[in-house]
Each structure stands twice: as C-alpha cells, then as structure tokens.
Amino acid sequence: ITKIIEQMKKFNILLIATVLIAAITYLFALRRCAQEGIKIERNEEIKSTPNIVTEVKKIGKWEFLSIKIEELVDTTKGVLFKDKLSAIYYGTLRYGIDCSKAENDWFTQSGDTVYARLPEVSLLDDYFLDEAATTTVFASGSFTSDDRRDMRERAIKRMLEKSEKMGYKETAQENAKEQITIFLQQLGIKNIVFMD
C-alpha cells in the first residue's frame, strides 16, 4: 500500500508540474501577442491558378446542353415541278467548351476568390446531323446527290437558325456557369466570380 501511495504522489507531482508548465507557456504566449499584436497581412496580388486550369483541361470537351432537333425539308424540280422530295433530318446539337484548350487566364485567384473568364460556349461538333436517321417522307421523280446535299445543307442551316431563335446557346452558357461553380466548389473553392 505504501508503494501505491508513493506512486500516486509521484503521479500527482508530475501532473501538477505538467499543468504548471502548460499554464506558464499559455500566459507567456498571451503576453507576447499583447505586446506585439497580431498582424494580418492581405495579399491583393492576382495570380493564375495552374492547378485549376490543369484539372479543367483533363475534362476535355465539357457538354453543357444537348438538344435533339429535327427539320422537315422538301424540294421540287422538273417541268411543272413534278419531281418532289421531302425528308425529315435529325440531329443533336451539343453545346459546350473544349476544355483541353484552357488558357491560363481562364482562372485567376485573389485571396480566397477565384475569378473565372470562360470562353463562349459553342457547338462541340460542327457536323451534328444524324444522316442514318434521315427519313424520306415523300419521293417522286429522280434526284441527284447534289439535290440531296442541298437539302441536307438547308436542314443544317434551319436547325442552327432554330437553335439561335430558341436561345439554346445562352442557356448552355448559363448551364456552364452553374456546372463550373459546382466543379470549383468540389475543389474546395468557396468564392467564384465570373467575369463577362
């Protein structure tokens, strides 16, 4: 029993010594901070963030809006326009950004804020027509490959005009901001400002 009491006394002495050392260290630190004050430095320098650019480049082509579209095109020719051809063309317009072309100025950082200067979204594939899905609705007479090519080009032109009229590109640009915000937040960035 006396051994146990002696060990407890030693333990209590060590415990008291540890608490005293911790308290003295704490008081010394408080005194020093009070004398020198706490300095907060603010760095206003705006710098490129290559890590973000690298992560974005890995994405490749980032699609923000995909629209399936169809267009009915017809043509007539011949004497008294007896030859007629009508076809429905199908396509998928994919709007996005080719991130593999990311420039260093797409993302800059100042403090805890990232400034994003994104390029305009565009069609990821200029040839979006699905020719295999083209359906001939009506055909009478004979048509050359040039006639069919002309119809195909008219269908593409109309699809692009319809897309512009419906504001798909603008919708894709807004989707880009939303998705890139989520992406950057997943990288741990809280403050994101888009520069237009």
Brief sketch in words of this structure:
By secondary structure, the protein is of the alpha+beta class. It is 44% helix and 28% strand. The protein is built from four helices and eight strands; from the N terminus they run H-E-H-E-E-E-E-E-E-H-H-E.
Strand residue content: 25-35%
Q: Main sheet: which strands, in order across?
A: 1-4-5-8
The biggest beta sheet is recorded as:
4 strands, mixed
Radius of gyration: 34 Å
Give the number of helices. Answer: 4
Q: Which series of helices and strands comes N to C?
A: HEHEEEEEEHHE
Mean pLDDT: 83
Structure characterization notes:
This protein is α+β, with helices and mostly antiparallel strands and 196 residues long. The protein is 44% helix and 28% strand. The chain contains four helices and eight strands. It has helices at residues 2-36, 50-59, 145-166, 168-186, and strands at residues 47-48, 61-77, 83-98, 107-110, 113-116, 122-123, 135-140, 191-194. The protein has a four-stranded mixed sheet, with helices on one face. Strands 2, 3, 6 and 7 form a four-stranded antiparallel sheet that branches. It is rod-shaped. The model is unreliable at 43-48 (pLDDT under 50).
Task: Note the topology.
Elements: H1 2-36, E1 47-48, H2 50-59, E2 61-77, E3 83-98, E4 107-110, E5 113-116, E6 122-123, E7 135-140, H3 145-166, H4 168-186, E8 191-194
Features:
196 residues; 8 strands; alpha+beta; rod-shaped; four-stranded antiparallel β-sheet; four-stranded mixed β-sheet
